[in-house]
Specification:
heterodimer, A: mainly alpha, MetI-like fold, 13 helices, 80% helix, globular, B: mainly alpha, 14 helices, Sugar ABC transporter permease (chain B)
């Protein structure tokens, strides 16, 4: 279908305006972060705001917590999903579908439902305020998605390849590591990126599971920074940029995979 | 594969034996590999899910012994003005998070998907950006935009609409709408990108046939585009309706449910009841109801999708 010149011009304008409105709140916070803290001072480009915010907002501790939790959740969820996905997608023993549906429920369960008993039960065991209290519930949530995601990938692998490897005497572990992991790279990267983003941006579980604030993550640190620091918005904005930066950088580098991962996950989920 | 379909008489016994033993070893390997994932999932997902249902039948402050109260907490959930209000607010948010973005997304996507404009890759990256940024960060930004001396009021003053300026998040009349519009802003990009990929999959012939039949823009939109993206519409609705129901960090950071109770939402009330008011039972029943609502929405939309096929 050929499109007229005017139609193309109008479309481009709409595209530009829509992209602009999506960017304005994001750019606004970046502009604020780089402006001067002093009222009436219109100078710009204050990179030192980031250092001050980092210092005053205790972001070195919160970022460390966030990195540790994210790495733990991403690794655990990936390894466990590969195991469950391989069994439910490739080996398919009797009852595999039933187990799969039970995992599927987990994708729908909101954090609000599991966080209450988890908090009280883990408090009784003296486990709140530990990294495990925050990371294990998040691992279970990511595992629900990961099982679904990896099962779909393993189902898509031609069984003839696995059959051939088995006839050559390869064990299940060997098949998983030498054959399936290399062909599964795109699926694995997508899962890593998505679970990293979900874990990094999560709010409710770290808020509830670490009442003392010892395991406070970067987004939580920002919320509390806002509570204490009502005066200057420049430092708050600088803190906000710091919190968003890791995921945004990852997004910009892997945006193709990110978008297809989000939309594929959405369409299948 | 060929080995299985044409077994020779002499080779049969050993092959049969091997297949039997692989099947048995499959079961062993399956159990070994599933043990850890199932354990983690059961301990941190299924068990708490069962426990929250149990807790919802008790009155408990989180410290002393709880007392069995049967369905009392559910009665409270459905009659207490504050809690019912939270669900009403959630319904309003669904309009802002799901319905509005869908309407905007349909128009935008149908405008954009078929006109070969440059830069759609850049566009896709940009409109998707709000999806990846932590809600806390977006909330901090929007709080500044809505502030008395923020971007929105400055803009209104610039065009001479001083009378409209106000503290958007602090005003009883506008707080919920202001929160809702943040949701609209976040969702619209996702919905548009989903719908654009759906429209790209509609065969061109459909549009050409419709044009030959003399169908105008509206009729092509309504009879070709909308039915062609039914699946994408269902997915968009599932994602955005659930996002609306699970709004927590946005409310926590922008309004804390205020002013008054004008922006409380169910998930905020779960937190508030359990950890500020010491009503763990009520919080649990609220969480159970919220979970059930999400399940029902998912099932309904999936059934609609099945029906389609």
């Amino acid at each position: 279908m050929s499109t007229s010149r005017t139609e193309r011009v109008v479309s481009s304008m709409v595209l530009l305006l829509f992209a602009l409105q999506a960017l304005v709140p994001v750019l606004y916070i970046v502009v604020l972060a780089l402006s001067s803290e002093k009222i009436g001072d219109a100078s710009w480009g204050h990179l030192d705001n980031f250092a001050t915010a980092w210092e005053q907002g205790h972001f070195s501790q919160y970022m460390t917590n966030s990195v540790l939790i994210a790495v733990l959740v991403v690794c655990l969820a990936l390894v466990l999903s590969l195991m469950s996905g391989y069994v439910l997608g490739s080996l398919r023993p009797r009852g595999a579908d039933l187990i799969f549906y039970v995992f599927l429920i987990g994708i729908m369960v909101p954090s609000e439902a599991i966080v209450l008993p988890l908090f009280f039960d883990m408090r009784a065991l003296g486990l709140t305020d530990t990294i495990w209290a925050v990371a294990l519930p998040q691992t279970a949530q990511s595992l629900a998605f990961g099982t679904f995601w990896m099962r779909a990938f393993f189902r898509g692998v031609d069984p003839a390849i696995l059959e051939a490897a088995r006839i050559d005497g390869a064990t299940d572990a060997r098949i998983l590591v030498s054959i399936l992991l290399p062909i599964g790279r795109p699926a694995i990267v997508t899962q890593v990126v998505l679970t990293f983003m979900w874990t990094w941006n999560d709010f409710l579980i770290p808020l509830v599971m670490s009442p003392s604030g010892r395991m406070r993550t970067a987004p939580l640190g920002l919320a509390f920074f806002q509570g204490q620091y009502t005066q200057g918005t420049t430092l708050l904005a600088a803190g906000a940029v710091l919190v968003a930066l890791p995921v945004v950088l990852l997004y910009l580098v892997l945006q193709k995979q990110f978008i297809s991962g989000m939309t594929d996950g959405a369409v299948k989920g | 594969m060929t080995a299985q379909t044409t077994p020779s008489a002499t080779a049969r016994p050993p092959r049969e034996r091997r297949r039997l033993s692989t099947r048995r070893s499959h079961v062993v390997v399956s159990i070994a590999l599933l043990a850890l994932p199932v354990l983690v999932y059961a301990l941190f997902m299924l068990y708490p899910l069962a426990r929250v249902v149990q807790l919802s039948f008790y009155q408990w402050d989180g410290l002393s012994l709880g007392t069995w109260v049967g369905l009392d907490n559910y009665r409270t959930t459905f009659t207490d003005g504050r809690l019912v209000g939270a669900f009403v607010h959630a319904l309003v948010l669904i309009v802002f998070y799901a319905v509005l973005p869908l309407a905007i997304g349909l128009v935008l996507a149908s405008l954009l998907a078929r006109s070969q404009v440059r830069g759609t890759g850049f566009f896709r990256t940009v409109v998707f950006l709000p999806q990846v940024i932590a809600m806390v960060v977006l909330a901090v930004s929007w709080r500044r935009i809505y502030a008395p001396d923020g971007l929105l009021n400055s803009g209104l003053r610039l065009i001479g609409l001083d009378a409209l300026t106000r503290s958007w998040l602090g005003d009883f009349d506008t707080a919920l709408i202001a929160v809702g519009l943040i949701g609209t802003w976040v969702s619209t990009g996702l919905v548009t990108v989903l719908l654009m990929s759906g429209i790209a999959g509609i065969p061109k012939d459909y549009y050409e046939a419709a044009m030959l039949d003399g169908a105008g823009w509206w009729r092509r939109f309504w009879y070709v585009t909308v039915p062609g993206v039914r699946a994408e519409i269902l997915v968009s609705l599932t994602l955005t309706v659930i996002a609306a129901l699970k709004t927590f960090d946005l409310v926590y950071v922008t309004t804390s449910g205020g002013p008054g109770t004008s922006t409380t939402v169910p998930s905020y009330e779960v937190y508030n009841q359990a950890f500020r008011l010491g009503q763990v039972g009520t919080a649990s029943s609220l969480a159970v109801v919220l979970t059930l609502v999400i399940f029902v929405i998912n099932l309904t939309i999936n059934l609609l999708g099945e029906h389609e096929r």
